[in-house]
Structure formats: C-alpha cells, structure tokens
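Customer escalation, tier 2.

The customer says the design service returned an amino acid string that "doesn't look like it belongs to this structure." They asked us to rerun it and document both sides in this ticket. The original structure tokens are below, unchanged.
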C-alpha cells in the first residue's frame, strides 16, 4: 500500500482538502474536495463570532460551543468519507497537515467579542480547531504548519528549490482541472511534507 496524507486549508465555513499519495520524492493527488463546516440552514454559522458579537457572554459562549460541535461533526463526517475512499483505493492514510495562521493564542471570549480584528482571527481558528478535532477522530496525527513558513519548510525537508516545488505543485492540478487555486496548492504541499516525514525511516 502507498502512504497517503491529507492537507487542509480553512476558510469561513469550509476548507480546501487535498489528499496526496507517494513518498518524499514524488506525489500524486488522490482526492480533492471542499469540506463544508457550516450549516447551510444557518448562514451565520459561517461567521459564528459575528453572530455572537452582540449577545450576553453566557449566550455567546453557548452559541460558539454549539457551532464548534457542529463544525467538528461536519468535518469529521467528511474526513471519514475521505479515509474510507483512500483505503478502498489501496492507500494507507498516515496523517494530516493543517495550515495555520500566526499561531498566537486566542484571548478569552469577552476580549474577542470586543475587537473586530480579533473576531476575524477567531473565526479562522474556530474552523481550524474543527479540522484538527475531525482529523484526530479519524485516528490521524495532525501536523500544524504556519502558512508563512510552508514554502521555506518544504525547501528544507524536500530538498528542492522553491521554484521547482511551486512548478511541481502547479503541475499536480493540471490533469485535474479547476479548482486548483492557492488553497489546493498549499494543501497539497503541506500534505507532501507529512508524507516525507512518514517516509523518512524507510528511506533512511
């Protein structure tokens, strides 16, 4: 069985998912999809902290908790479907890569709701946490990678120059057709790093 890994890049209410298979030297895309994490019947669930902004703290906390559970459950169902599909195709899932923002700790909820900038940051973290919990519920080890450090880390781990890595990742999506935007490219590269780490003992 070939190893496979999943890369995830979160947005408000959804995430780009790309699964790649192979090893530290080369990979291929074996799944690509959009993971929904917001209830379409509740449009504001895409922006849970905005929805809670004007509520009393107790009600805001309850609302955020409800949205967190819903987002994790939706992401979990999607990832379980991905894992089942990979195994049916003969791939062995070895981990997931979760793209992160700055990585700064979140303040308490009352401080978040008092700041428009913090609300925006908290929404992103809200859905990244859901993806992390979903990955763990599927038995996947999660590797967090800051977006700003992704390319530099890939150059070091994969031992390839930036231009070559970017060209390779771009070519991965050529046969698939759209969408193959920055979301998918970054998710694929992050997943490749997980594969490279999983492959190291066998290569060494």
């Amino acid at each position: 069985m070939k190893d496979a890994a999943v890369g995830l890049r979160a947005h408000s209410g959804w995430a780009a998912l790309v699964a790649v298979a192979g090893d530290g030297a080369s990979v291929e895309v074996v799944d690509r999809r959009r993971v929904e994490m917001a209830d379409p019947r509740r449009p504001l669930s895409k922006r849970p902290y905005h929805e809670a902004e004007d509520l009393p703290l107790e009600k805001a906390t309850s609302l955020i908790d409800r949205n967190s559970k819903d987002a994790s459950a939706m992401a979990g169902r999607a990832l379980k479907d991905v894992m089942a599909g990979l195994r049916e195709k003969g791939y062995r899932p070895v981990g997931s890569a979760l793209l992160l923002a700055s990585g700064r700790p979140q303040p308490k909820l009352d401080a978040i709701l008092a700041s428009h900038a913090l609300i925006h940051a908290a929404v992103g973290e809200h859905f990244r946490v859901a993806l992390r919990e979903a990955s763990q519920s599927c038995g996947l080890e999660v590797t967090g990678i800051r977006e700003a450090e992704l390319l530099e880390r890939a150059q070091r781990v994969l031992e390839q120059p930036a231009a070559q890595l970017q060209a390779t990742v771009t070519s991965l999506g050529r046969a698939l057709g759209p969408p193959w935007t920055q979301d998918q490219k970054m998710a694929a590269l992050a997943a490749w790093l997980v594969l490279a780490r999983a492959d190291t003992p066998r290569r060494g």
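Tier 2 assessment: The sequence is consistent with the input. The two ends are 19 Å apart (CA to CA). DSSP finds seven helices and five strands in the chain. Sent an explanation to the customer and offered a walkthrough call.
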